[in-house]
Amino acid sequence: MPEIRGGFHEAPASSVPELLAEAARRGVPAFTLSTGGRTDKEAFFRVVRETLPLDPPLSATRHVWDALADSLWNGLHDLDAPRVVVVWPDAGSVAEAHGDYAIALDILRDLPTSLADPRCTAGRRTELSVYVASVP
Questions:
Q1: Any alpha helices (H) in the chain, and if so which ranges?
Q2: Nearest to 66 by CA among 77, 56, 76, 79
Q3: Nearest-5° Cα angle at 50, 49 to 55
Q4: Of 37, 47, 77, 97, which has the fewest beta carbons less than 10 angstroms from its beta carbon?
């Protein structure tokens, strides 16, 4: 079984089922962002709205990156779970990220750090593990 570690990680797509199974075995809330290999802004916002806890909810027509980051942070923190796993199993190469995809990855990369920082969380930290798997 793979070890679930806090932070942002690029993982082989073949490891995603094992990561999700390990999260389930440990009782860790796990969310799967499936965009069908698309990495554009609309696809990312759609799957985040449909899959992840958000506070406040995001508009279906207004796509603002800062609002997404804040809503995700609040939604994940409000879960009141000590650990959370987010997996994006059909993303593209992290090394080749640009444009909207790079912004989406930056948000996913920053969340684990800020959710674990006791200064940002009033002492109620969340260990967020984000796994991004490249499309073969």
A1: 16-26, 41-51, 65-78, 99-116, 118-121
A2: 56
A3: 40
A4: 37
Q: Please say whether the beta carbons of 14 and 68 come within 8 A.
A: no
| pLDDT reported for residue 135 | 65
- Where do the structural domains in the chain lie, given as residue ranges? 7-134
The CB-side HSE value for 57 (13 A sphere, CA atoms) comes to 6
pLDDT tens-digit map of 58-82: 988 889 999 999 999 999 999 989 9
Residue found by looking up tokens 């069908």 in the block: 36
Cβ–Cβ under 8 Å, residues 20 and 75: no
Whole-number percent of the chain with pLDDT over 90: 73
